[in-house]
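User: Can you fold this complex?
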Amino acid sequence: MAEKMAILGEGDSVLAFKACGIDAYYASEREEAKDLLRKLAKQYTIIFITEKLAGQMDDLLKKFNQSAYPIILPVPSGSNSDGYARAKLKERMEKALGVDILFNKDREEK
Amino acid sequence: MSRLNVNPTRMELKKLKARLKTATRGHKLLKDKLDEMIRRFSLLIKLNKKLRDEVESQLGQVLKEFAFAKGQLSKGALENAFMLPTATLQLKRGTTSIMNVEVPALSVEEKTGSEPYPYAFAQITSEADYSVKRISEVVAKLVKLAEVEKQVAMLADEIEKNKRRVNALEYVMIPQLEETISFITGKLDENERASITRLMKVKSMIADKNG
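Assistant: Here's the predicted assembly.
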């Protein structure tokens, strides 16, 4: 059976994903989004979530990292990323390696 | 360093020596495992960063285009137009094992319907066409990113756990065992010396009495 994908977001922009067979869900508030995510986690393989919402429920997202599925992936909601996913990436790298091997260059440029 | 609370007997010594051997072996194995996990992790995280950068720039552009399309239509019309998707991505899920960590592995198969767009051209502006076309491209990449990012996250957790195990063995378990073993050996040697002196004393006492 084909596995399903969903997107959870706070604005209209999630509609764009609908065109390629991804189910779109709206949530504007933190608690509402959390409840919805718990429900969706049982049905979907991949859940995309906008960075803005993801940033509000960091603790819940951490719990999903214990098993292989579902995958919950933060995506930028507008044309610009607010850096949540990048911060996560950095956090994981520091946790595992203890050093920064990716963002050094970025810092030098600044 | 504290030593374990055990009786200084030969039995106990034997047991502890066996435990020390296991602990040392386990420590070596875990350390090797950790090294390999870190190597894999650093490769994966570089890939993750690259994919993330690509996806972010592409998705940003697509969403910008979509915002244009949205601006030209009423909300109802837009929702109607996107109601029925035609191009669906067939997703298959499985798991692979990276150093004994079960991580997701996905494969995607794009299945396009007869019509590439989920609406009639009369309904909607051309801006939407572009964004719909582009977004299917981005989604395939998003799936790949989802897979890699999850692998990175799970591997990071596992590396942290493994580090703790290695440290616990190296700095707690092994020194403790070593100290207890030396304590028991000392105690046993002392007992032996004590019994020898006692025998010598008894012998000399008997010799005095007889002589």
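Chain A has one domain: 5-82. Residues 40 and 62 of chain A are 16 Å apart (CA to CA).
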